[in-house]
């Protein structure tokens, strides 16, 4: 997919500018009396095109700037931010942060991450792949994707195709002398379609998200996938209330793992608002199951050499042999808990759920359907029915009823319910059908039993 560049690659010049600005502001903060200071600065460039029924709906070019400063006067903290990088705005932001810090209460957990934990190695992670596409070519690509989907018999309407290009450069610096520079690209294609008429309409979609445009699935294939998913929902029915095994499709399985991450993250733990409080070192999943964080994956969706506080990232088990190996902590939450940062300020970096099952290899999606046997294949969830304190899980859902390892018919207007603690312990298999579009890399996940309520 070649085209004229949207703009020249100025990433290194922008990084130089942001680095110089950050270091200068930190010096000025120290001169103003701050004992510690940290700066995050970024520039984001993007193009987004929406096409519907072959016509252009929206074209948006963006160039956003961000500058955030935190100062510490002892253990009193003040933060301020601006989207304007001109000197007057930066000075006003510094003045405001200092004023806030002078009037806040002391917090024993406040302060920069430990200086000894700062990253010192910065290997190339292959995250920078500018996409040379102009508006006309982005429109044409959106039209090709939508046209491929609308060509399928039974597709009656479209919610449109979207083409997105994004580039981001950022700098994090602090008064330990640390200056970390990052640049990355993220590009996306998507299509949403409608099949049927009136009360019998169904809607579904597909998308792709990549660091490098060369890694996109073919436009025809994306349109076909969106159409096939939409048409497969025709004739959906409800189910009578029952208990049955549930197979989470890969794109939903990562959400299930996301609930685990939320429950073992520092903020929930020090507030004592997690159903996995005090579970480090305890079995929470089957003994064959392993989950590993790998921050240095090439082209990874959340790869990075340091976290949001400059702490060096490293490969580390989250769940090992079914046992919760650690929590997910930045320096503040770690101090609140009397622990050490795990290099996760700002979030998790590429979580890998290893495929497997109690009897060895789980296999691909077809093999996972065979393992499910008779039960529910889950492809959509709705609502916010997850209680992080109790672990209670109840969501509106849609998917397919499976009999003897074969998809029998689509289902909708159902609710699935269980407790996350039981769901994690009841995982029977994790497939090899990994969805690569997220920083949580997992195949489909088979849970042995949930309540399904419908008619």
UniProtKB/TrEMBL annotation:
Q: Name one GO molecular function term.
A: metallopeptidase activity
Question: What span is annotated as the signal peptide, if there is one?
Answer: none
Under the cellular component aspect of Gene Ontology, which terms does the record hold? cytosol
Any coiled-coil ranges, and where?
none
The Metalloprotease TldD/E N-terminal domain extends over 37-101
Q: Which residues form the Metalloprotease TldD/E central domain?
A: 129-233
GO biological process terms, semicolon-separated = proteolysis
Domain Metalloprotease TldD/E C-terminal, first and last residues per copy: 241-454
Q: Which family does it belong to?
A: Belongs to the peptidase U62 family.
Q: What is this protein called?
A: Metalloprotease PmbA
Native organism: Rhodanobacter glycinis
């Amino acid at each position: 997919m070649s085209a004229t560049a949207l703009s020249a690659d100025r990433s290194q010049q922008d990084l130089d500018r942001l680095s110089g600005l950050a270091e200068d502001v930190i010096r000025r903060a120290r001169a103003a009396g701050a004992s510690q200071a940290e700066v995050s600065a970024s520039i984001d460039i993007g193009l987004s095109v929406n096409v519907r029924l072959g016509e252009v709906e929206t074209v948006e070019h963006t160039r956003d700037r961000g500058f955030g400063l935190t100062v510490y006067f002892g253990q009193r903290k003040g933060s301020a931010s601006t989207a304007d990088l001109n000197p007057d705005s930066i000075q006003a932001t510094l003045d405001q942060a200092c004023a806030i810090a002078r009037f806040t209460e002391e917090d024993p957990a406040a302060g920069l991450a430990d200086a000894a934990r700062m990253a010192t190695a910065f290997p190339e992670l292959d995250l920078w792949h500018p996409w040379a596409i102009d508006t006309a070519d982005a429109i044409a690509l959106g039209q090709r994707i939508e046209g491929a989907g609308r060509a399928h018999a039974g597709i009656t309407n479209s919610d449109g195709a979207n083409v997105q290009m994004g580039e981001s450069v950022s700098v994090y610096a602090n008064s330990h002398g640390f200056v970390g520079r990052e640049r990355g690209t993220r590009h996306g294609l998507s299509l949403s379609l409608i099949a049927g008429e009136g009360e019998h309409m169904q809607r579904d979609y597909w998308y792709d998200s990549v660091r490098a445009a060369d890694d996109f699935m073919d436009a025809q294939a994306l349109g076909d996938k969106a159409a096939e998913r939409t048409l497969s929902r025709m004739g959906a029915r409800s189910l009578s209330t029952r208990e049955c095994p549930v197979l989470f499709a890969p794109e939903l399985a990562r959400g299930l793992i996301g609930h685990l991450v939320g429950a073992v993250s520092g903020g929930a733990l020090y507030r004592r608002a997690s159903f996995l409080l005090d579970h480090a070192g305890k079995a929470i999943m089957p003994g064959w199951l392993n989950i590993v964080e790998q921050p240095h994956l090439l082209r990874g969706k959340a790869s990075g050499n340091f976290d949001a506080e400059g702490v060096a990232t490293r490969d580390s088990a989250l769940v090992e042999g079914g046992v919760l190996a650690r929590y997910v902590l930045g320096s503040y939450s770690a101090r609140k808990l009397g622990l050490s940062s795990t290099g996760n300020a700002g979030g998790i970096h590429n979580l890998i759920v290893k495929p497997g099952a109690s009897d060895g290899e789980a296999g691909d999606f077809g093999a996972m359907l065979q393992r499910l046997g008779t039960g529910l294949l889950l492809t959509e969830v709705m609502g916010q029915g997850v209680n992080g304190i109790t672990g209670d899980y109840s969501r509106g859902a849609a998917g397919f009823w499976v009999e003897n390892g074969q998809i029998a018919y689509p289902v909708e207007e159902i609710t699935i319910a269980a407790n996350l603690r039981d769901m994690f312990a009841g995982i029977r298999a994790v497939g090899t059908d990994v969805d690569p579009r997220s920083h949580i890399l997992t195949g489909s996940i088979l849970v042995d039993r949930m309540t399904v309520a419908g008619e």
